[in-house]
Amino acid sequence: MNIGDVATRSGLPAKTIRYYEDIGLVKPLRSANGYRMFHASDVHKLAFLGRARALGFSIEDCRGLIKLYEDTDRESAEVKQIAEEHLSRIDDKIAELIEMRATLATLVDACAGDHRPDCPILADLASKQQSLHLKETG
Amino acid sequence: MNIGDVATRSGLPAKTIRYYEDIGLVKPLRSANGYRMFHASDVHKLAFLGRARALGFSIEDCRGLIKLYEDTDRESAEVKQIAEEHLSRIDDKIAELIEMRATLATLVDACAGDHRPDCPILADLASKQQSLHLKETG
DNA sequence: TATTGACCTTCCAGCAGGCGGAACCCTTAT
DNA sequence: ATAAGGGTTCCGCCTGCTGGAAGGTCAATA
Predict the structure, then answer these.
(1) How buried is residue A103: exposed, middle or buried, by Cβ count under 10 Å (0-12/13-18/19+)?
(2) Is the CB of A9 under 7 A from strand D?
(3) Rounded to the nearest 5°, which phi and psi values hold at A35?
(4) Are A117 and B76 within 8 A, CB to CB?
(5) A75 contacts in B (CB within 8 Å)?
(6) Residue A16 neighbours by CB under 8 Å, 6+ apart
(7) Does the pLDDT at position A133 exceed 50?
(8) Strands (E), B28-122
(9) What is the C-alpha separation between A49 and B30, in angstroms, rounded?
C-alpha cells in the first residue's frame, strides 16, 4: 500500500513516515515507479510508534521497544525497565514544571497588572536577591 | 569587560552569550583586537535573561520582557499578560505530562517485569486502537 | 626571544523530531 | 490535452543552544 494509505491508517503524517524511514524505523520496499510499498505490518508498527511517541518515549526508546516487541523471547523486565526510566524522566519534568509554576504564579499574583509601571515580575527577574521563591536546599 | 568575565558573572556560558548577541539580545561593542566589550549593564541583562529562561520563558518572551524592563513607562499589565500566558502554557504542559504519567504508570504496574516475555506495556502499545486515536477522529 | 597556555575570534555541524515548500514525476479522469 | 491528486527528492527552518576546528591575542615565563 502507498504512503497516503499508511498515513491514514496509522494516524501519522506522511512526512513523519518518510522521516521514520530515513532513520531506519521502517523499511518499505519500492515499486517500479519509485513509490514506497508498505505491508500491513508496517501500519501496525507505525501505529505502535505513534502511541509510544504519544506517551513521550524518545525515538531511541521506540527503537528499543520495537526491537523488544518483535523479539517474542524478550523478558518483560527489559520493557519494564525502559518504561520505568521514562516514567522517572516524566516525574522529573513534572517536578521541574511544578516548581516553575509555583514561582511564576507567586510573581503573577503579586503583580497588579494595571496601568502603573511597578511590576514585581520584572523586579524579581532583575534581581534575584529579593526573590519570592528562593530554594532553601540545593 | 571580556566575555569570560561576563560569563562568570552572569552565570551563562560564553557560547550562549555569543548566541544571544547573534539573535540581538545583547549588543556588546568591540575593542581594537576584535574582542567583545561588555558593560556592567550587559551582565545584569544577561542574568535577567538567565532567570527568565530558567522560568521557562521562550527567547521571544524574553525579548518582550527585556523591552518592557527597559521601558520604565510600561504598564505592569503588559508584563503580567506575558507571564500569565506562559503560566497557562506551563499548566497545559503539566496536565499533559500528568496524563502521560498516569497511563504509563498503569502499564508499568501491570507488567511483571520478570524473565517471562508477556508484557502488558507492549501489548497496549501494539493494539490500543481507540483511546489515543480519539483526538484525531473526534 | 620564544614559547607556553589561557583567552578570544569566526564558522561549521549537530542534537530532537519533525514541518513546510519547491520542483518534479506518475496515474487517472475528463 | 489537461488538471487534479497522488507520489518523489532535497533543502531549509524551527528551539536553544553546544561542541569543535582553525586561528588571532595577550600575559607570563624560561
Answers:
(1) buried
(2) no
(3) -70, 145
(4) yes
(5) 114-117
(6) none
(7) no
(8) 29-30, 36-37
(9) 51
B23 touches chain A (CB under 8 A): no
> To which H or E segment does residue A16 belong?
helix A14-22
Residue B26 approaches strand C within 7 Å at CB: no
Identify the closest residue of chain B to A105 by CA–CA distance. B87
Reading the block at residue B95, the C-alpha cell is 496536565
B55/A126 Cα distance (integer angstroms): 13
Radius of gyration of chain A (CA): 24
Strands A29-30 and B36-37: unpaired
State pLDDT tens for residues A82-115. Answer: 999 999 999 999 999 999 999 999 999 999 999 9
Determine contact, residues B50/B12, Cβ cutoff 8 Å: yes
Interface contact B90-A100, CB threshold 8 A: yes
Query: DSSP code of B132?
Result: G
- Provide the pLDDT confidence category of residue B137 given band limits of 50, 70 and 90: very low
Which residue stretches of A23-127 are H helix? 40-54, 59-70, 76-110, 120-126
Question: Cell triple for residue B35?
Answer: 574582542
Which three-class secondary structure state does DSSP give residue A30? Answer: strand
Nucleotide nearest to B12 (CA to C1'): D17
Q: Look up residue B11 and give its amino acid.
A: G
Give yes or no for residue B69 having a pLDDT over 50. yes
Q: In this structure, are residues A129 and A135 in contact, taking their beta carbons and an 8 Å threshold?
A: no
Digit-coded pLDDT (tens) for A78-87 = 999 999 999 9
pLDDT at B129: 57
* Protein-contacted bases of chain C (C-beta within 7 A): 7-10, 16-20, 26-27
The gap between B22 CA and C10 C1' (Å) is: 12
